[in-house]
Amino acid sequence: MDISSYAAPLPPRQNAVTRRLAIAVGALFVAGVIAASVALLGIANRLDTEEISKTRFYSARALENRMTASKNYISSYANWTTAYEHLSNPVDINWAFTEQNVGKTLFTNDGYDGVFVLDRERTRYAVVRGQLLDSDVSEFLQIPAATLVEQVQGQSDLSIPVSVYSLFEGWPALVSAAAIIPNDARPLGDPRKTSVLVFVDKLTPTKLRALGSGYGLSNLTLAPDETLARDRPRVALDNTGYSLIADLEHPGQRLLWSLLPPLGVTMLVLMLLTAYFFRHALRSSQYVDQSFAVMQASNLALESANRGLEASEERFRAVAEAASDWIWEVDRALSLTYLSARFSEVTGYPQDFWLGQDIGQLLFCDTTPLELWLRALTEQTNTSDLRCTYRDHSGEQRHCRLSARPIFDQHVVVGYRGTASDITDEVAAHAQIQHLSLHDALTGLPNRNKLARYLDDALLLKEHAPALSLLMIDLDNFKPINDSLGHPAGDAVLQEVATRLRESTRDNDIVARLGGDEFVVVLNGMDSHAEIDKFCTRLIGSLHQPVVFEHHPLHIGASIGIALSRRHGYVPGDLIRYADIALYQAKSEGKNTWCYFEAHMSDQIQTRRQMEDDLRHALKHNEFVLHYQPRYKVDGKQIVSVEALVRWQHPTQGLLGPDVFIALAEQTDLIVPLGRWVLREACETALAWPPDILLSVNLSPAQFAVSDVVEDVREILVETRFPASRLELEITENVMLNDTDCALITMNALKELGVRLNMDDFGTGYSSLGYLRAYPFDGIKIDKRFIASISSGANDRAVVQAIIGLGKAMGLTVTAEGVETEEQLAILGKDQCNEVQGYFMSRPIDKVAFAQLLQMSRTDHPAHKKGRVT
Ligand code: C2E
Ligand code: MG
Ligand code: MG
To answer: PAS domain location, by residue (predicted)?
Structure first.
């Protein structure tokens, strides 16, 4: 599953963006409004300014035009010959006023309020508002008449009129003055004497309004300067104190007033709309943000859930594909609905082959029907394992461990799912282990365990079961073969014996190997002596046949002990023990024979058992003691050595000699710890004695066989710091008999430790002189049997003499043991034996007594007094 399909890309926060956008748009809007307002105000201002200048311009132009018109009009009167003739001194009133050439019509038609004819001296003609008056012009005009006359007469061209503004009867008026001159070519004379015609055009509001309307000026009028605001646009009328003004339209302001309210309203509406829009946008963005946050949170949750899901899927895949497990699912009807990919790999079947089929067709359990087992799983927590078998695609039977859980849909079981672990190898390994645990690895025969099981089953029904005969077989002469020719030879012998035993028995019999050279045959349904005897004869005959190993014929034999279920009971352990006892008996009766168990044998064995237990106990509780028997020079006086001899301080039976327990200790391997104890104890004790006294310790042949005697001796020497050169080990010939090569190696190794070796009981065993040559002995001890008879029979003395001669010839120290009489000592002295040991000189005594003896013998020395202790 692609996680990206769930996790949307994360947008920036909408609220913040909208806020920024709102501020930006708001700022733009305000800037726009300000710019528009400034532009509008500028336009309005410019319009107003233009209007002012226009008003001023047209006002001035209207005045100028009125002045020009007035000048032209007065020129048409003054520059007229007839007028010159009638108005120069004196004024023709008739022509002027009565005939109305320069009279009343100028007021009524042309609007001149005053018509005057002046000269330098006085006012010659005066008509005011159409009325002829005899008044001086100065009564009406503010400007002095003389100034006006001089101004007119002072011009270079008298035909050009002069216009000024002056108050007339207190109100501004346009005063035009022109010299009254003929318009013909006659000479004028002194201009100072020319009369001056004056027209006064009083600038009344009516006239001005009419004048202004001609120029589009509204309400053109005059106002005293002091009444006008300083910035009021005006056209000043010279020094009259009045200015011409007109009403200002203020188009800019009008424009503003006409535009501002709707503009303001529009702006306001726009602002409100924008604010509303942004508020809405903000809210939306907030909502978007919140939704986004929620979405983000849910995205995160989703993402993490997805990650979890992915990990879980991954885990599932890993689990499903790893190991040898495959995963299965079935529906309510137990039809397979799912099989993981591993299924194909493990079983070799394509998944499709089995999908839709009943799981019971695939898997089989011989103890519980699969369906029953599945239906029993009713709880979610119910899990269980079932071992099943199936045939894989190649037809091989395989084993699997099935685990299952019910699948629920609304509390109803709708199917099951689980795993199947392939345990074929495990089962095979288990079977192998089972086999190994029940069989002997070398021969493949059932071992002691399997025999025990077999007997348990076979004897379960006691007398109702078929009779059983249990034959315990021990091979004769096996140990020497094994020891001398090595284990391969021993193994070959054992395998061959196993084969022969199997061949001699029937299918319902059992042949087992208990270990070493001990075998058991159980004859099923056979218990007559005649039959058994026949069988044993055949068996011994078969085993007596030589076993060929590497072209060498190896000869073995067999002893058989027999126990019968019907006679001796139905307890397997007892039967084996009885057969063992009978075997013991058979061996003691001579080899290659068989013996049936008898009750009395059991007692002997029982005693032996008890003894064995006691021996173990004794070892544990330090019940052993050492006695010491000195060895003398042949003179029987000078102690040269001392032999440690073990005794058992038995709690009930008193002090027991080694002949009672050493053999048993050897048979049970207790000889090893016992031998170690003796050596250690002897070394520790002898350390207190003079260094020229040697210490003899007996070693059992069994110690050679079952322990590393060299290491034991070395260890004890090191630990006790007893000098190896003072130690002498006594070994009987049997050591050499058991394992010739091995014994030689061991003895050489012992010699290398620096100890002496003495051959004990020389003459009792196989007494081969060859051993003496081959083995590194330092001395021999002639067995007491010979010594006992040297004084009585010449033959034994000759043997002893021969041994002494031979021993000495080989450089060995010859000791005679068991010297009980003075005579014997004397003979040995004569025969030049080296050393003597025996009750005659001293019995074995405890360490305290021996120390005293030593003391005494030393004190007595050199008198060589004989110290006899009994
Ligand atoms: P052995 O090593 O030949 O010891 C000599 C045996 O002869 C001893 O018997 C000793 O008491 C006995 N003896 C000594 N002088 C005379 C005598 O003049 N007349 C007679 N009739 N016997 C005499 P013991 O102590 O009963 O030992 C018997 C055997 O037990 C020993 O024979 C030795 O083979 C074995 N043995 C004793 N102690 C040990 C031991 O610590 N370890 C081992 N492996 N064997 C031991
Ligand atoms: Mg000895
Ligand atoms: Mg001896």
So the answer is: 312-357
